[in-house]
Amino acid sequence: MKYCPYAQRVRIIIAAKNVKHEIVNINLKSKPDWFFEKNPLGKVPALEKDGALMFESMVICDYLNEAYPEPPLYPADPWQKAHDRVFIELWSKVSSPMYKVYFAKGDQHVLAQCFDDIRDGLDMFEVELSKRGTCFFAGAKPGMLDYMIWPWVERLPMAQQMAGDDDALPEERYLKLLSWMTNMKEEPAVRATFMSPETHLKFLLSHISGSPEYDMEE
To answer: Annotated catalytic, 135?
Structure first.
């Protein structure tokens, strides 16, 4: 589904690996029978190859990283690879309160608590990037950790718009992360899937209304 951050994860890795592919978008409000026949849980993203199918974004991305080894997206060191996986899991400290922003209905108390939680989550990543002393979490170039958290980072400006607070992420608090965000926007794999905050907001509002516009023009 074009506007799903989990599906965007897979599209980013496909772009980073330059894998030849075809995209089939699914209307999540009216999933076709053939999709359930292939995928009993009906979940997106899903990857089909040679008649076999897998789903779950991390499962797919890890498969793509192994099946198409260039460029490698995890550190060679097993401990550091595991450490990166831990931080991918820790990203829920940011993404979970973001979903609460989407459905806060303008409740300022809820929004304030959500952004307190988002900032607390981002603090961990600011500290980690500072410790690593690199442009990206993976070093001089983005890796799996960078790409796996990006879809929600791309949507942070939309969340700020919904909260009516353009200063929710103070520059002095996130010097490293804001520089990282700027650099990530220039990466070809990110640019291949990027959508503006306005586009994300337009879709999300249609989703909240109960009539998601899966085929809307950007």
So the answer is: no
